[in-house]
Design a protein that fits this description.
Length: 241
Amino acid sequence: MVKHIKSLPLFIMSIFAVATFVNCSNGSSENQNRIRVGGEGKIRVMPDQVTLTINASFSKPKMVDAVRETQATVDTVMRILESFGNKDQDIKTSSISANKDYQYIGSTYKFVGFEAQQTIDFVLHDLNKFTELTAKLLDTKISSIAQIQFNHSKADSILREADLIAYDDALKSATKIAKRADVELGKLLFLSNDGSGSDATGYSSGERIDTYNKGFGGQGFKIAPEVIEFKRTITTEFGIK
């Protein structure tokens, strides 16, 4: 069944409601005269934002030099990100960590210096600027873009709509079964969102871009976002008159 939700006209690609299972209780007397039905609700939307995880990492003979170059790169990246989003809401940075750097040389690990690194998570709300942003990032000395996560800014609202679709689906199934069994459906006795749906809030593109601290410049890269499916399942129990 396809249903369009008026409250989310710009986001819903298609909606499906499918009955998952139906069974009648045959246990003790207190469980008799009831019908338990499952419902499923699905909403498919296109993502409207993407989260990038950006790494800056440098290894130097002296720790102070590794920290200094890492901080300088992070400062450059921050200036770029602030032109694409809100500094307080869209950018999250980790603290700089510094450790001894060992590399496998010959047949053993040898100390080669000190490594400093920092991670930045950035949420881009305008996917049309994705290529422009990545072009500017590739022009810096970041070590990698470790993750590209597409998601939707209204994920919580969409999941709540999926819950309603799942309930409508369960009610419709219970009504049909009661009619086929020639009984009258009573009031709702039990309702549970068991959390067994996908509850998707996004997906990772699976891409990792390693730049090895070299500014490549040139064009940014393009990734076509896929449809996100939000799915919820519920269990309902109705009395039978």
